[in-house]
Amino acid sequence: MSGPGNTFRAFGEEARRQALIADIRNKGPIYTAWLTRASIEGDISAISAEHGLHPALARLLPALGAFGEAEDARSFYEALLNAIPVGAETGELARQTLLLAWTDPVYGRARMVAPGPVRDACEGVVALVKQSVEQAVDKKAWRSARATLAAVRHDDPAAEKATDLVMSLGWDLDQAPGAAHDVISAWAAAVNLEADASDEDCFTAEESATFETEMNKVNEEAMDSLAQGQSVESIGVEDFMAEVEKLWRADPVRHALKQRSVARRERSNAKVAAWRGSIQRRMLDLAQATLVAETTAINPAEPVGLHDRQQL
Amino acid sequence: MSRLKIVTTETFEAEVLQSQIPVLVDFHAAWCGPCKASAPALEDAAREFEGEIAFVKVDVDEEPTLARTYDVQGVPTFIVMKDGQPIERFQGLVSRGKLASVLEPLA
After folding, report:
1. Total count of domains within chain B
2. Considering CB atoms only, which of B36, B48, B95 is closest to A168?
3. CB of A207 less than 8 A from some CB of B
4. Are the beta carbons of A41 and B36 separated by less than 8 Å?
5. Which of A90, A92, A109, B1 has a CA positioned 20 to 30 A from the CA of residue B14?
6. Residues 60-99 of B with CB under 8 A from A
7. pTM of the prediction?
8. Are A251 and A257 in contact (CB under 8 A)?
9. What is the domain extent for residue A238?
């Protein structure tokens, strides 16, 4: 099946797919512009225009590699691109992946919203996303579903972050593909918060305040110390970090706090990485399940273009 | 071409205070990363709510008087105006979900 925005056809030719994979493997210019933080501010329309990937797919992928910070993500991107047949329409894959933000049994936001009017309104938005996989959903329907959720969302303050995410799900991805970025970013942020909150060694409010104060103090002291022998502008990051580390170690009490903070961050990062890995696997499963079927429906006698330029 | 009209101190009265429909004012700066990152969401929302809610932007460096008048402490700051009065404000990188939450009840 294909969604309403059935105008982007993946890669156009095998060589183009391989060129994209090679760029990712080598962390080349497209990778740098597309799969890193640069994608948030930058124009990544070339990924759709030149590589035929649906704009929503292009916008949800950077977060699944932690915006270039997850080294192991390159193998995921390579596997995903290899799982997308040349000529496939990838809007459905984007929609199905974003639905996981609500439906995933472990990480989905449905777990966060208690039965009642807010959950019903969220389900209304999700039903439209499911419908949009198969057929066009008109603007009035999206507006109505969002307005219903907006009207009740304050009834369940505990679900506020989940309803924010669902509000971002409630957009037509052909008209507003950037909503894919909003959804996946909100999901990653929520998983991160949960990881922090569930840590085995959470800071108390007092410890958090103390740590922040100490961190600011250490940074200032490091800068003051280094600035004695050189101009502030010439202080290098590595020198600054070394000085900061020296100052932390000089005070056993605050160093202990720092070590706890670092350990906590590592545990949280591992939990977020587990989320990313899980969603990557599910996305690969979706790609293999949906896109193979799609391609068999394409008439091989029909030339496969990259996209309808009017859609750009 | 942007759907967000640039508003200055001279045009603020006519474009915002006298507007017949609610107005979302985006106080931004050219050097601000989150402002740039918010721009596509604002464009999408401006298209979605066209004719129901107006979207304008004010450069805080070019229009410091407006920024002071509305107590803009950081960018981006978004203020929703209705009948010449601010009725909602929020700050920082904005998503389509946040915009929909704030604007759907007004449309």
Report:
1. 1
2. B95
3. no
4. yes
5. B1
6. 95-98
7. 0.90
8. no
9. 205-250
